[in-house]
């Protein structure tokens, strides 16, 4: 399978997603502790996610689902489930033998194995005497992966291939293992996996990566660190000649670069206006020289000036209110055509005047864009919900 992404405006050929499973319910029981903006309807969100998949398929994009990839390769799924399922003795801790766990895992069908992978269960067992009483489970402990439907963050796809990230929050740290298993099941080999560094905090999430042809942008903020960017540069993971490290806001509404900046077309950027105009929103440039990148700017420069004066981009500025409604978290299907949450008629008209074609739901012809009122309350839109495998 061909893999790579040179520019966000190149035609999207293959995308990977994860549907909303039972793990979402546990996230809704305490939204903020699970990195959600607020509660929402799980079933309505699942329908919105399916609608997103349907419109992408209608645009000729091949939509791959993590759970389907795992189900079609039982060996990969069993290996993953063995790492996700645990038993504990009430007094002696983890004593279940590998053979005993294998017996349980190999007896489950693929649907239950996938559910176990995303719920991460541990059964606390009280052992019976083997004569008059059998073992019983006193408690089931779960570590549900409640953010796993935001597929963007566990890896990036560069012009050279896939790089597995490292999640910034404890709630999400197991997601990369599922991503690696799914890619392995699909026969896809990443070119690099982000390594832990004991001397400094290190994380990299895919929402901070925007490829733009000869240049790529990497956000440095709440979820991606300097150490991670250094690894990307030193291991030649990026195909572009220029790398722009963007420093911007560090808050949950703008946790990733793609939450406030995106590219709907080759010459156009959709950006949160107040963030772009902030003097603290800057870019530092690195240029490739042979097999290494060297800094070419003595100090950070205005990101707005770089986009408009050096790259010649047209800028579509949106308000803080529209940014919080995920108006900037678009998914570009091809140059000048996007999937975007429906936020208002005025915003739709603004995009149309810029020559941007908006993908709409055939069942809601009066709206330009998709109704995603529930699923976006998990703190992400179409770009966050998907990850491109191939743009060409």
Report on this model:
The chain has about 400 residues and is of the alpha/beta class. It has 2 domains: about 300 residues, L-arginine/glycine Amidinotransferase, Chain A (5-stranded Propeller), CATH 3.75.10.10; about 70 residues, no CATH class. About 30% of the residues lie in helices and about 25% in strands. The protein contains 13 helices and 21 strands. Strands 9, 10, 11, 14, 15 and 16 form a 6-stranded mixed β-sheet that branches. It has a 3-stranded mixed β-sheet with strand order 2-1-21. A hairpin with a 2-residue loop joins strand 18 and strand 19. The protein is globular, with a radius of gyration of 22 Å. The two termini are about 15 Å apart. The mean pLDDT is about 95.
CATH superfamily of the largest domain: L-arginine/glycine Amidinotransferase, Chain A
Number of structurally distinct domains: 2
In the CATH hierarchy, the architecture of the largest domain is 5-stranded Propeller
**How many strands, what sense, and barrel or not for the largest sheet?**
6 strands, mixed
Helix content: 25-40%
Radius of gyration: 22 Å
Beta-strand segment tally = 21
Helix- and strand-based class? alpha/beta
Query: How far is the N terminus from the C terminus?
Result: 13 Å
The count of helical stretches stands at 13
Residue-averaged pLDDT: 94
Quick tags:
13 helices, 392 residues, L-arginine/glycine Amidinotransferase, Chain A, 3-stranded mixed sheet, 6-stranded mixed sheet
Write the layout of secondary structure elements.
Elements: E1 12-17, H1 23-28, H2 42-58, E2 62-65, H3 66-71, H4 74-84, E3 86-89, H5 98-107, H6 110-119, E4 121-126, E5 136-142, E6 155-157, E7 162-164, H7 175-185, E8 192-193, E9 209-212, E10 215-220, H8 226-234, E11 242-247, E12 261-265, E13 268-272, H9 273-277, E14 282-289, E15 292-295, E16 301-302, H10 303-310, E17 314-318, H11 320-324, E18 331-334, E19 337-339, H12 345-353, E20 357-358, H13 382-385, E21 387-391
Parallel strand pairs: 1-2, 3-4, 7-8, 10-11, 13-17, 19-20
Antiparallel strand pairs: 1-21, 4-5, 6-7, 9-10, 11-14, 12-13, 14-15, 14-16, 18-19
Helix pairs in contact: 4-6
């Amino acid at each position: 399978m061909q893999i790579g992404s040179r520019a966000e405006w190149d035609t999207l050929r293959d995308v990977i997603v994860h549907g909303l499973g039972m793990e979402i319910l546990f996230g809704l029981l305490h939204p903020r502790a699970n990195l959600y903006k607020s509660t929402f309807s799980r079933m309505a969100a699942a329908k919105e996610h399916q609608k997103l998949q349907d419109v992408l398929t209608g645009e000729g994009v091949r939509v791959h689902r993590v759970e389907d990839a795992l189900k079609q390769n039982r060996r990969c799924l069993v290996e993953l489930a063995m790492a996700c399922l645990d038993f504990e003795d009430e007094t002696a801790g983890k004593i279940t033998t590998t053979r005993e766990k294998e017996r349980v895992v190999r007896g489950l069908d693929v649907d239950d194995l996938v559910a176990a992978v995303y719920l991460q269960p541990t059964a606390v067992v009280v052992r019976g005497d083997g004569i008059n009483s059998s073992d019983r489970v006193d408690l089931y402990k779960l570590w549900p992966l409640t953010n796993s439907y935001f597929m963007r963050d566990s890896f990036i796809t560069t012009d050279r291939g896939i790089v597995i990230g490292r999640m910034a929050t404890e709630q999400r740290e197991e997601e990369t293992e599922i991503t690696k298993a799914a890619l392995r099941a699909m026969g896809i080999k990443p070119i690099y996996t982000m390594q832990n560094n004991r001397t400094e905090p290190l994380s990299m999430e895919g929402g901070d990566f925007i490829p733009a042809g000869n240049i790529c942008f990497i956000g440095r903020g709440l979820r991606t660190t300097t150490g991670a960017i250094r690894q990307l540069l030193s291991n030649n993971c990026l195909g572009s000649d220029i790398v722009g490290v963007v420093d911007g806001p560090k808050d949950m509404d703008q946790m990733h670069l793609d939450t406030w900046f995106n590219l709907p077309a080759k010459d156009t950027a959709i950006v949160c206006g107040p963030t772009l105009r902030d003097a603290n929103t800057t870019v530092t440039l690195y240029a490739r020289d042979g097999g290494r990148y060297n800094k070419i700017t003595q100090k950070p420069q205005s990101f707005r000036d770089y986009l408009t004066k050096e790259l010649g981009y047209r800028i579509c500025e949106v308000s803080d209110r529209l940014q919080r409604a995920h108006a900037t978290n678009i998914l570009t299907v091809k140059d000048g055509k996007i999937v975007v949450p429906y936020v208002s008629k005025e915003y739709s008209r603004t995009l149309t005047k810029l020559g941007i074609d908006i993908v709409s739901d055939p069942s809601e012809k009066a709206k330009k864009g998709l109704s995603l009122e529930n699923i976006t309350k998990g703190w992400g839109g179409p770009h966050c919900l998907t990850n491109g495998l191939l743009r060409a």
